[in-house]
Amino acid sequence: MPVAKPEPARKNAFQSTDAELSRKFLYYMALMREVEERIERRLYRQGKVLGGVYVGRGQEAIPVGSGLAARPDDIFFPSHRDLALYFIRGVTPKQVFAQYMGRRDGLTQGRDGNMHMGDLSKGLVAIISAMAASVPVAAGAAMALKYQGKDSVVFVYFGDGATSRGDWHEGINLATVQKAPLVLVCNNNQYAYSTPLDKQMACANVADRAPGYGMPAEIVDGNDVWAIYEAAKRAAAHARAGLGPYLIECKTFRMTGHSAHDPADYVPKDLFQKWSQRCPIQQLEKRMLDNSWASRQEIDALHQQIKQEVDQAIEQAEQSPYPDPSELLLRVYENEA
Amino acid sequence: MPVAKPEPARKNAFQSTDAELSRKFLYYMALMREVEERIERRLYRQGKVLGGVYVGRGQEAIPVGSGLAARPDDIFFPSHRDLALYFIRGVTPKQVFAQYMGRRDGLTQGRDGNMHMGDLSKGLVAIISAMAASVPVAAGAAMALKYQGKDSVVFVYFGDGATSRGDWHEGINLATVQKAPLVLVCNNNQYAYSTPLDKQMACANVADRAPGYGMPAEIVDGNDVWAIYEAAKRAAAHARAGLGPYLIECKTFRMTGHSAHDPADYVPKDLFQKWSQRCPIQQLEKRMLDNSWASRQEIDALHQQIKQEVDQAIEQAEQSPYPDPSELLLRVYENEA
Amino acid sequence: MLTSYVEAIREGILEEMERDPNVFLLGEDIGVYGGAFKVTAGALERFGARRVIDTPISESAIVGAAIGASFMGLRPVAEMQFADFISCAFDQIVNFAAKCRYRWNAPVPIVVRAPCGGGIHGGPFHSQQNEAWFAHTPGLKVVLPATARDAKGLIKAAIRDNDPVIFFEHKALYRKIKEEIPPGDYTVPIGKAAIHRVGRDLTIVTYSAMVHVAAQVAEIVAREGISLEIVDLRTLVPFDEATVLESVRKTSKVIVLHEATMTGGFGGEIVARITEKAFEYLDGPVLRVTAPDTPVPYSPPLEAAFLPDADKLLAKVRWLAAY
Amino acid sequence: MLTSYVEAIREGILEEMERDPNVFLLGEDIGVYGGAFKVTAGALERFGARRVIDTPISESAIVGAAIGASFMGLRPVAEMQFADFISCAFDQIVNFAAKCRYRWNAPVPIVVRAPCGGGIHGGPFHSQQNEAWFAHTPGLKVVLPATARDAKGLIKAAIRDNDPVIFFEHKALYRKIKEEIPPGDYTVPIGKAAIHRVGRDLTIVTYSAMVHVAAQVAEIVAREGISLEIVDLRTLVPFDEATVLESVRKTSKVIVLHEATMTGGFGGEIVARITEKAFEYLDGPVLRVTAPDTPVPYSPPLEAAFLPDADKLLAKVRWLAAY
Ligand SMILES: Cc1ncc(C[n+]2csc(CCOP(=O)(O)OP(=O)(O)O)c2C)c(N)n1
Ligand SMILES: Cc1ncc(C[n+]2csc(CCOP(=O)(O)OP(=O)(O)O)c2C)c(N)n1
Ligand SMILES: [Mg+2]
Ligand SMILES: [Mg+2]
Q1: How far apart, in whole angstroms, are the C-alpha atoms of residue A181 and residue C46?
Q2: Whose CA is nearest to atom 22 of ligand 1?
Q3: pLDDT lower than 50: segments of chain C
Q4: Can you give the CATH number for the domain in which D139 is found?
């Protein structure tokens, strides 16, 4: 029974050839796309997923490029459009579907929904809803790694809108003063819910804020997984070398509403048009073909495989039971089972 | 009975000659110095002032230079080392002493202490203790002035340490997005309580943060009242013209402990030494003498006059009654007397 | 014509904007989008971007700016996208807004609107009912309407009030509650409870969405011969002690019902007032029916187990009635 | 040798740092300066800047960083310079720290120390007693020692606890309370109240500095033949209901005493628990003695009028004893 293709996750990305790496990129990006398609356009509409649904359609290159640039002992603080990070760390599509459907096999066993999930044993820290609240927490995790003399680094993810929060500022400021090994990955998709960038900040780029924290920053094409991968490598090397935080701003676009119930009427149609030309998955595929890293057949087979994998995962997730009401009171504190 | 010299406060600074203006500078700076000397080194030690005492010794040029650059219809949000702003707006030394001593004639009638005082009718907004909490509030006041079509501007004051707070970031970001008429005056005295600048921020200057908000900033000698005055004029003109916030970073030094109970042992002695050479009052006096804007005798007479004024104010303040316990429950809400 | 709870609030806000040019709105996605729950839909079109301000994601700055604008004579109505995010503005609310009048006689006439409550599968961060924090902060008024009529009257009263008002709108009521409301301009006084249902045997003191749970139970037990009186507090601060005590003196049995978690919830305050001031009238222990002391869980069976409902209340009503 | 409350806390912290290399401190001015109240004096000298971190003025980041470090296996002890500033870290505490274990099984073993309380002429922003906010947030433990002995034992227990603990140290006790404490290592269990004084006629349920006010009054009324029992809660959450109820069942009369303002204070919760679970034992109304619903005023006569004290308690004790 072929669940997923486990190799890409396991094999050390650092030793891959370009062709191998590009296949990993494609696998995780396509898997994220497919899983989120099902959640947003099927399960949610079927009423099987309740509550908020936020997806990263069009932004898959960001978690994938950065996530594969990280070492297995690095720590991830994903935001709400970074699903691929979970797959990279070995969380299964079944667990993700179960999480969204509020089932026992979800990472939170039904206690929280959607992307609000984590697993410390896999180096995945769950967000809370409050935008940018993860940033000081990630700063503290990075300080701890330094305290422990480890050379792992922390990757923390956030959107353009989250940069307006006080926590974003406080967390980065503390991390830079402490020279904590922190890689800051901004997905600048130009909107925060319905609010466009120019109502969110008066500077042109999130990266313009880096000098105010004495840290380097670079702006990358957020739809180019290779560019993100390379930038994340540089950022991680910087942080690992004890030089402190490093910001990567990925310019991209949210190819969907803010959440599943949002038709995004406020986004000029031509923007969707324009950015659909720059789909990170299609761009990667083109590059793979151009470089003969994979054939069309191989790519199609990969997509096929993913579809099957996802079909199966949904089936399994739907068999996962709901939590029992008797669990409600457990585990608010230690020793409450 | 000559209480204060009222002219400097009343006369429009905009029409003054340099000599006149320099005398106003000196008057307010020396008055602030004298009042705070009495509070910190006498009344506090005599147990007549209880609670926290924070003074602006060595930093008087900042509130005076900026305060006199403002128009009477501009709004001030002083921080805790900006006493002169109150005098510029017509609050009397007696009221200030009464405030510190918890008497009825203090601006808060004993309900709050020290610099936690305001008077909306004079365009003075009281701080709360939480550093930088005033910044978003000042942003809102500035937004309101724009809303009302007024061309007044808001001056908000804060220290270097306060810039680490989330509120500082959120307030400035909102103000810049909204192009609100806000002048940001930073007293960078290189310490926040016992914490030196390099433990507070990883950039060299507070001004380095301005590009991250798309606003102009300038760094001025915080002990040069004329330089601050000029910078504040530029800043106010910018804000008044509808161009949005403008940051002035005044480099200075706190010539005292953080508060009256703090001997500041953590400050290298030579720093006090070095900065005492740069006393803003002495520097101003030298310039006045060099330019023949005033004679030594005139200057001495001014100091003399201030001492008397202050003696008298203390006497009067000590006669101010304490609030009556029966007032405790009043005015938590409207219509509670 | 029936008006929903959300329409009632919208009407109230728009009427106040019409009436008073100093009233303006600020918050995240309230303009172009009309708000996450469409409470302010149409406001931008009608009043323009000057009076309907889409802000950055900065709850603390939103409340702070509201305070500052109120000092200049404006009457800001700030929206928190969810009540859960009000924690991000906590210092501005409890330390700045709440204390200015007391400290230096500076009124802070702002309204902070906060869509609260569970029942929409929002999980731990989109379902909170955190009014108790604010009810414990002198200087704030705390309002939680349960009906469309009250929602309109109270939002208008809140906007006209000269003190900071935290206005909790229950998300599950937005489109569920529909009723006839008086046409045009009216206010409902802040600080006055309502007798939602007159009864004889037992008083339920409650507020917000739980009023409807109490009403459900009242119908059921009426058939069993138990007559419930329902006191809808409507505002926690100022607390309408007189109305509560009057009902208690009449029925001699009380259950306090709220959706917030139990420990430290406002229910304790209500019980304490009753126990101190109507002790001799009590014919039985004062009970509380509340959510348990956990975060709000997401999964439907857990959320259902978490939320107080008719069954849970019913059991206590029957027990106490028989006491 | 007598140990003061502040020394007891310091000893507890330093011993834990000695015992466990994962324990570290972070906060404003806690290193070079030793903390605004010198609680951590000597820590930097002994353990170095790696384990004693002077932070920027960033309460939210201080708590956030503590949470993050705790995920990595460290045991952070964060200091708020004053409990009043904990509002600036509110979201991190109530939404991040409090809910991780419940949501995704991630323990958050942090301690947030908060010097609280009035009586030092600190005014509205240096005197707050705001424990009730946290007691209403499931997932947090809330500790408020009243004695030096408990302060040391509880700070050590807090540091070893695997849940987030908000540790309120009363500023007025730091140097006022001095007592013999057990030498060396000991802990006091979180969640256990203490019978501070055994009595017969009337129970005072209290905590933090007010324990000493109760003790004062107990001495006075003892001469009048009234025997007070004092329950020092020590921790509000977990709440030691059993000890409180046992005392109430014995004395049948209760006054709840706390320094926090009345409405929405934790006193209501205590009254509600008693009223629900020991109703039949009560020989009189359960009273509360608390600060009134105002900000904490600065001026000495106002502050004195604000703070609960022996006189205010005495009046209620006599009244209830005679009931
Ligand atoms: C503190 C806070 N306020 C409001 C929200 C509601 N909210 C959820 S996502 C979002 C927009 C986030 O924008 P951005 O950070 O750019 O991320 P994106 O969704 O575009 O990836 C908002 C306003 C929130 N989650 N947290
Ligand atoms: C939010 C908050 N945290 C801590 C404090 C305690 N505190 C008062 S002043 C101060 C230092 C302020 O430094 P800075 O902003 O540089 O101003 P300065 O005193 O140097 O003028 C601190 C830590 C506070 N007032 N507010
Ligand atoms: Mg975005
Ligand atoms: Mg400073």
Answers
A1: 50
A2: A193
A3: none
A4: 3.40.50.970
CA count, 13 A, side-chain hemisphere, B9: 17
Go through chain B and tell me how many residues it has: 337
**How would you class B17 by CB atoms within 10 Å of its CB: exposed for 0-12, middle for 13-18, buried for 19 or more?**
exposed
Structural domain contains residue D189: no
Q: Are residues C303 and C226 in the same domain?
A: yes
Q: Which of residues 35-74 of C touch B (CB under 8 A)?
A: 50-51, 53, 55-56, 58, 60-74
Among all chains, which residue has been given the structure tokens 């993913």?
Answer: A306
What is the pLDDT at residue B8?
42
Q: Give yes or no: residues C170 and C214 share one domain.
A: no
Render pLDDT for B121-163 as a digit per residue (tens, 0 to 9): 999 999 999 999 999 999 999 999 999 999 999 999 999 999 9
Q: What residues of C are in contact with residue D289 (Cβ under 8 Å)?
A: none
Distance (Å, whole) CA C247 – CA C141: 23
Q: Using CB atoms, pick whichever of C33, C124, C126 lies closest to residue A194.
A: C33
Is the residue at D185 inside a domain? no
Establish, for the pair of chains A and D, how many residue pairs have beta carbons separated by less than 8 Å: 134
The CATH number of domain B20-255+266-327 is 3.40.50.970: yes
Do D121 and D269 fall within a single domain? no
- Domain locations in chain A as residue ranges: 20-255+266-327
Ligand 2 centroid to residue B161 C-alpha, Å = 6
Name the residue among D53, D69, D103 with its Cβ closest to that of A141. D69
Distances (CA, A) of D257 to A261, C294, D203, D241, D312: 50, 27, 10, 16, 10
User: Which residues fall within 8 angstroms of residue C167, CB to CB, at 6 or more apart?
Assistant: C111, C112, C113, C114, C143, C144, C154, C155, C158
Q: Which residues of B263-286 are buried (b: 16+ CB within 10 A; e: fewer)?
A: ebebbeeebeeebeebbbbebbbe
Q: Hey, CA dihedral for B272, B275, B277, B281, is it positive or negative?
A: negative
Does C205 share its domain with C71?
Answer: no
- Residue ranges around ligand 2 (CB below 6 Å): B 81, 129-131, 158-162, 165, 187, 189, 191-193, 254, 258; D 28, 57, 59, 81, 85, 88
Both D211 and D127 in a single domain? no
C-alpha dist (Å) from residue D137 to B16, B38, B57, D140:
59, 46, 44, 6
Q: Which residue of D has its CA nearest to B127?
A: D125
Q: C222-253 pLDDT, tens per residue?
A: 999 999 999 999 999 999 999 999 999 999 99
A275 SS3 class: helix
Residues 6+ apart with CB under 8 A from A264: A194, A256, A257, A258
3-state DSSP helix/strand/coil % of chain A, to nearest 5: 50, 10, 40
Domain boundary among C150, C179, C208: C179
pLDDT mean over D156-160? 98
| Count of domains forming chain C | 2
Asked whether residue D29 carries a pLDDT value surpassing 70, the answer given is: yes
Residues C133 and C12 in one domain: yes
H or E stretch at C42: none
Domain span holding position C208: 194-321
Residue numbers in B near C112 (CB within 8 A): none
Facing residue for C163 by CB, picked from B128, B174, B333: B333
Residue A212 to residue B212, Cβ atoms within 8 A: yes
Same domain, D204 and D127: no
C258 flagged as catalytic: no
A67: tokens are 């996530």
**Chain D residues closer than 8 Å to C87 by CB:** 90-91, 94-95
Q: Which protein residue's CA is at the shortest distance from atom 13 of ligand 1?
A: A192
* C179, C210, C232 - which closes a domain: C179
Cβ contact, residue pair B203, A209, below 8 Å: no
CATH of the domain at C304: 3.40.50.920
Shared-domain flag, residues C131 and C25: yes
pLDDT band at B336, cuts 50/70/90?
confident
